[in-house]
Specification:
Number of helices: 23
Radius of gyration: 31 Å
Low-confidence stretches: 265-288, 314-334, 454-460
CATH superfamily of the largest domain: Glycosidases
Shape: elongated
Strand order of the largest sheet: 7-6-5-4-3-2-1-8-9
EC number: 3.2.1.169
Domain GH84: 1-266
Pfam families: NAGidase
GO biological process, one term: glycoprotein metabolic process
Helix content: 40-55%
CATH topology of the largest domain: TIM Barrel
Oligomer: single chain
CATH class of the largest domain: Alpha Beta
Protein name: protein O-GlcNAcase
Length: 696
Amino acid sequence: SGFYGRPWSMDQRKVLFQWMQHWGLNTYLYGPKDDLKHRLLWREVYSPEEEGQLRTLIVEAQSRGLRFVYALSPGQDIVFSSSCDLTLLKRKLRQVSDLGCQAFAILFDDIDHSMCQADSEAFTSFAHAQVTVTNEIYRFLGNPLFIFYCGSLCSPSVSKSPYLQTVGEDLLPNITVIWTGSKVISRKLSLESLAEVESVLQRPPLIWDNLHANDYDSRRLFLGPFKGREPQLKNHLRGLLLNPNCEFEANYIPLHTLGTNNHYRTSMQGVAVFGCQCIAVCPPDEECEYCPDRALSAALKDWMEELNQPLQAAWSTCGWRSGQKAQVRGLCGGKGLLSESQVRLLVGLHYLPHEHGPSAQKLLQDLTWLKTNCQLVSTNSKKVDEWRGRASRFLSLCEDIAQLHCSVVGGNNRAVLYDLYPYVWDLRNTALVAKAFICWLGCGKTTGADQLGVESEPWAFKGGVSGEVQMLLPVGSSSELFTHPPPLFPTTRLYNIRPYHSKDKVLYRMVRQLHLRTQGGPESSAAHPDVIGDRCLGPCLALCPEYSFILEDELGVCGCVLGILDVRSFAKRCQASWIPAMRDKYPPKMNGTHPNTQDLIQLMEEDQGEYPDSLLYHFPSQLRLDALPELVDISISRTLLTALLTALKANGSQGVFCEVQPTDRQRLEFLTKLGFLEILRGEARSREGVVLGRLL
């Protein structure tokens, strides 16, 4: 494969060859950057076992009418003037040639452009060194199909680049040169720019198209169609390489639509997959009738069938790929089917680098508008109905994203699950925070203290749709809140995060159960079941309910997070109203079963604590997080906490802290991963807890 990341397995490449044969693609280039003997250890020959695997792959490709191109990347440390290095390079390529390979590529991309002393003395320029070695290897191998990747050394411009001029003049004319386009990731390919490149290189270039490559951003995936390459380019191209997503299953639509594009070019010399990158060579005269939208619809129809097959991630057991559908439902563990609307949603949310699909566009447009116009909620303007209508549609789309996550996790095709799961999981969690934020705005809670975040130009940050939604939230710059790895064991459980409302009495029961589990022993508050809730939750729910969020799943409430915007004013309000109310509710020694009122009141006063002014200056807000231990997906607790931090930040908080028992290692580790640092120890005061804080 030509990308950075875990190389595809041999079985996956064989499946790819089936796709290519079926879709009319005809050349495959093997060049995975993380194959050590392709790049880092390029001097080392393959072992007998590795030879056997590579020979099998070459034979498999040739049996399906595909040209197999072997690529080597020696540029990181080759000494061009070294006869030893040249001998080792010839030995390595001769070994592959003896396995049956008849086409080769030398890739000099992503390397240091400076030369060592020996090369500087032997060659007039970096280009001269590369071209000299490439020409000699080409002749040594007997003038096979040969591809040279020169990178993008085009300073100060294409037409005035000494590097490109040397390549054009000195590289043997039958050697093809790869070009990335005007940019590393080009939205469109300009006819004028390609004509200029052709003139300088003295041959039509072979485009290395990174349209679907995602190895530069671990949160992005590109499932959209091949597009933005007009048919008029054909007279100035020798071909086009489509660099793929790292995840094998994510490339079905990109390759399918490239094949559709090829279908309309009947006299093509070939289409290739470059490990997987695809070369599409255009005919000289025929006009292209390719339509990306129609091609996408056709690909979606075929992919639907693929997605809903009971396929394991262990490819070697899945004989149905060769035409015999194996019955592996019991092995897969999935049971659900993805609907067409869900597949369209999946593609629309993970479309192309410079273009979102319709669903993603709607998600971002509505979130931006709702955030910008949140002041309408607290007015009597007729526009409040418009705000609530758009909010309802936005929340519905967020729910569809959550359901999509569950359907992918619960689907039959486990191979697709393992490739796509991190992306649908990431977007599910980000959408949950955004949904909770809009629900919170809909309650009229915001003061607009920080103007609800900073506007950013599209594509100025990483993360795709998830990253853009994140940046629209007040805590969007805090990447550690959004970029944790997904859990090892995916769950299909549906979650919802929403603001607290007065009917949520179940919180008292949940916290009471948690207290009994952690403290052990018989329940001592049978006469007054509200005692634990009144102590742990009561002050926040009574005095600042607008900073309380509820986590619920299909079985009901399973967690909550409570916040205090300003601890100083909150403590004064507690003394003025909450503590007196508790004295009235719990008279001394009631029924002889309840702790003395003074003891209870003392505990409540201690819970408020007396925090140093230096702490409250930087961390004016406080939080409390509770979740049932049955909550398997720990990431959802992170998402719940992020919803609260979003609300606190939106109303001007610059920092938040929480108190944790030093023995609660799990909670300490959880908060530390979210950017909380220890700012106060119990020995500095009369309490035992460790105080952790983070700036917002």
